[in-house]
Amino acid sequence: MGKKLDKLFWGLFFILGAVFILVSRMGYLKDMNVFTLVLAVFLAGCFLKSLFHVEFTGMLFSLAFLAILFSKELHIEAITPWPVLGAALLGSIGLNIIFHKQHERKWKKEEYRFEDHATTVNEEDGCEIHYGVTFGSSIKYINSDDFRRADLTCNFGAMKVYFDNAMIQNGSAEINVHCSFSGMELYIPKEWNVITDRASVSLAGITEKNHPQTNGSPVVTITGSVSFSGIEIIYI
To answer: Helix, strand, or coil here: 61?
Structure first.
């Protein structure tokens, strides 16, 4: 569903961009810059993607940049740019705290781990791993003889996760990430075939370092959402 939404977003983005260019050349929208309109379409798309994935940071900052972009038309110059950006930042922090507190209670009930401070974790894991960091930094070593899925959450923090001690038995696994205003490094065996285009990325990036040496299996799919963050996949 996320991949279809990305295709729809980019398709509409380029189509509307073409329409705006033609309309502006015909003399319409004289008071509106074409670049501004195209940027507004992009930000609106980022907001919708963030809304679909319930990413508060992406939603609030998309709205903040839209407010800055149309501050004159909306007569809100007094609160742009820094007040509205500050409000978006504080709102993102508050909503992420509330949201993750709910998940923290759920995870503790199910004996999952959620860390809010600097820590290093190296212990035996099952086939599914659930790990998160908020306002802190953490290093996690995945030790699993039958790794199938990892749910990794990082907000306003830094996370390093090592998968070199993980073994995939059934030929495929999933790494589901939720990353906002953070940096995440995933150290992955070079033999794994990593698919990265399934994740939703808004004003962020997923990069790869070193070269994999895979024959196509096992397949590891990166899913989830990334906003205002950077995820680096390092093959080891």
So the answer is: helix
